[in-house]
Amino acid sequence: MNTKSKLIVLCGPSGGGKSTIVKFLLENIKDLTLSISATTRKIRESEVDGEHYHFVSQEEFLEKIKAGEFLEYEEVYPGRFYGTLKKHIDDLLENSNVIFDIDVAGALNIKKIYDSQAITIFIAPPSMEILKERLHARGSETSEDFKVRLEKAEIELSYAKNFEQIIVNDDLDTACLKAKDIVQKFLK
Ligand code: 5GP
């Protein structure tokens, strides 16, 4: 394991602006690479296999669990698994710092494994009401998924206090700059 490279773990409810912030950090901080997770959820129209996720079947995912290939994995939503592959992270860490967009349980597991080599950052919406509006505006979910994601958001928010840094995203540009500042200081 390359102990010089660092891990940046971003977390927070769906619709909270996390992916925009991750994209901003990737574009504005050098030597930073995104961890691509494996998932069993269905691919969205806007997504590319291997770029956003490695989309796999439930059988393949379960095989990988059995083979011990995951650094961490969670059933983030009922019947939908997401996981970080050990080999993928070892390979990335050889040459780069790595940024993760994963759920709270996964984030805290990564922190437990990598300790001071990792930083955990929680992106919180200003309120549940605003989160609901943002998720609605995104329009990528069915009404059942929407409900599931809101329930998950409430649980995730209750874990925010366990994170080393919390950024309240009331303005996306400001949140991006705050995240950049935190990450740059951590990488120094
Ligand atoms: P989405 O379906 O919107 O892409 O992601 C759903 C949730 O799964 C997000 O909160 C995302 O951060 C989380 N997630 C994505 N990949 C992983 C992973 O590898 N491990 C864990 N624990 N959570 C993940």
The global form is: globular
* Helix-strand string: EHEEEHEEHEHEHHEH
Residue fraction in strands: 15-25%
Q: Major sheet: order of its strands? A: 2-7-1-8-9
Percent in helix: 40-55%
Tell me the radius of gyration: 16 Å
Bound ions, cofactors and other small molecules, one mention each? guanosine-5'-monophosphate
CATH fold category name: Rossmann fold
Question: CATH H level: which superfamily?
Answer: P-loop containing nucleotide triphosphate hydrolases
Query: What distance lies between the first and last C-alpha atoms, to the nearest angstrom?
Result: 19 Å
Strands, total number: 9
CATH first level: which class?
Alpha Beta
Q: Give the CATH architecture.
A: 3-Layer(aba) Sandwich
Number of helices: 7
Q: Which stretches are poorly predicted, pLDDT < 50 over at least 5 residues?
A: none
Mean pLDDT, rounded to whole units?
Answer: 93
Count of domain modules = 1
Tell me the major beta sheet.
Answer: 5 strands, parallel
Q: Provide the structure class.
A: alpha/beta
Key words describing this protein structure:
alpha/beta; Rossmann fold; 9 strands; binds guanosine-5'-monophosphate
Fold and architecture overview:
The protein is 44% helix and 22% strand. The strands form 2 sheets. It has a 5-stranded parallel beta sheet, with helices on both faces. The protein has a 4-stranded mixed beta sheet with strand order 4-3-6-5. The chain has helices at 18-28, 58-66, 86-95, 104-114, 128-138, 143-157, 172-187, and strands spanning 7-11, 32-34, 38-39, 54-55, 70-77, 80-85, 97-101, 118-124, 165-168. With 188 residues, it is α/β, with parallel strands linked by helices. The mean pLDDT is 93. It is globular, with a radius of gyration of 16 Å. Helix 1 (18-28) crosses helix 7 (172-187) and helix 5 (128-138) packs antiparallel against helix 6 (143-157). The protein has one domain: 3-Layer(aba) Sandwich (Rossmann fold). Residues 14, 37, 41, 72, 74, 76, 82-84, 101-103, 105-106 line the site of guanosine-5'-monophosphate (5GP).
